Amino acid sequence: MSQLTLDHASASVEFNKNEPRVDWHDETLWFVRTKRDRAVAQIPEWEQLREAASQIKNHVLSNMHDLLVQFEENAKQNGITVHWAADGAEHNAIIHGLIQKAGATRMVKSKSMLTEECHLNDYLTQHGIEVIDSDLGERIVQMRKEPPSHIVLPAIHLTKADVGETFHEHLGTEKGATDPQYLTEAARQHLRETFLTRKVALTGVNFAIAETGGFVVCTNEGNADMGAHLADVHIAAMGFEKIIPRAEHLGVYLRLLARSATGQPITTFSSHFHRPRPGQEMHIVIVDNGRSRQLGRPDFRNSLKCIRCAACMNTCPVYRRSGGHSYHSAVAGPIGSILAPNLDMKQNADLPFASTLCGSCSNVCPVKIDIHDQLYKWRQVLMQEGYGPTAKTVSMKAMATVLESPRLYRMAGKIGRGVLRFAPVTVENRFNPWYNQREMPEPPAESFRDWYVNHKKS
Amino acid sequence: MTTRERILNSIQANQPSLLPLPEQFTFTSSFPDLTKQFSDSLAFVGGMAVVVPDHKTIEAHLKEHYPGMTSVASTCPELAHLADRGLDVADPHELASLNLTIIEGPLAVAENAAIWVDERQLPHRVVPMITQYLAIIIRQSTIVPNMHDAYKKLKVNETGFGTFISGPSKTADIEQSLVIGAHGARSLIVYVLP
Hints:
The complex is a heterodimer. By secondary structure, chain A is of the alpha/beta class.
């Protein structure tokens, strides 16, 4: 899959070239955000629910070791095979091994952002395994050889005309067709055939229950169920933070998840898997991939509470106007920007700067992650570790020098006022990022200090 | 050291000191009429609830709603005569040609119209997804207000698989336009018996 290598700011400039499309993207996501607000208003105890969800996760983070051991023991007793993967490479190798063992060369997969994080599709394709994503949005972007741009709405950046074009090319639908009903029907036929012919199915995990050794997968389409119930081998890929202590805690999370994500009261299917069906194999791959490191960072460990609802993306003024792909990370938006630097600080150093720090993300987060505070804290860590953008590092140093010396400060002010008045072109040009979306200020005749000194005399 | 030990050791070394589980994590919802709340929620998610006095009325409604439908299966003994095929196949792939399936749901939630079904109601796990149209029969007395109440009544691991179904299969992946009938059932009718 093609991955953008641009940093967030440059990629956003690309995205912003098509202004009507940016407006449309912004409005579409805001529409989802308002649906969330309407759903939330129906629940008088919403704030207490968030608090409960957050506190259950606090306990989970502090008791992770024992909960995982408990989960593993119970899952094994249920007849589920448990695997552990330290990183993406090990995760991919385990899954490849299971497909080989089943004698299969094709797999059907429902949504799993973890497999995106581990680049599983690329890996399997390179090893001669065909993977078909069965979530409609994911299938659309897969045909276009793009990564998903949003964790809940993978194809939210595409119009129905784009989808029509893609389906015409790959599924033979009529050229120029844009009716969502017609296009979805074409995908339904194509994917039903896929479900009926695959021996191996992979799903993600929304929640894993320590007490019972089972796991829950939520979808609206029923694609995870169609894949898993028809396959001989069901593989579930799970980041270890998906664990919850008891089944009854699902009452809290299932009330929060879909309302926060799309404004629905609950997903159409919330499927609880505890044992393989007779004759079937069930595997679960528990993945670390940097999560235990994040657990050890007090400032950032709360990011592991995330239940992947994407409410923070839908509300984020930066995400809505820069598009998911500009984040060049499996999980985009505000939550992705605090998760990604943990995976690779250098590669993702730009992401915590892709925010206005308005705090809207933290306000809508159903598990009360302090997202905007973590974005702010990451900026400081990244600058200290030397991963700040060069221009910013240099100009910060220059600014520090100027601010340290009153004489230099006064001189710089004088020069600045002079330049703005007599040679505005030196700052009013496209090389000055500050000027790109702004008018430069009218320079005052004198500095405040000069004015103060003069007035004090009289 | 195995990967398992390495991960678990790293978690143990990095996890903060133990914080207790919250004492309050269940909440009470009060609806003046649970059946009405259930029906309204179901309509909101694209399904249809029909309050009926008996199985005869269900039969009449089904015949009117799906005239001439063939490849019909039922797990409900009272409606067994409507079925022209059984669900006792060895391989679930054989269910691909199912048109209409009638099953029974032991527990429903008013707040979100979710109906619990598990392997006691499902001869095959894939039945409610693979069938083109789905009808579920519930009893009014089994409707609980919210999810907390549901989990208090449920033993989720009593069978190997159970699912909450709320409405027909749907997607809004193409420009946020809601389309009913993605991979699973294209419609869901819920019959509410006294």
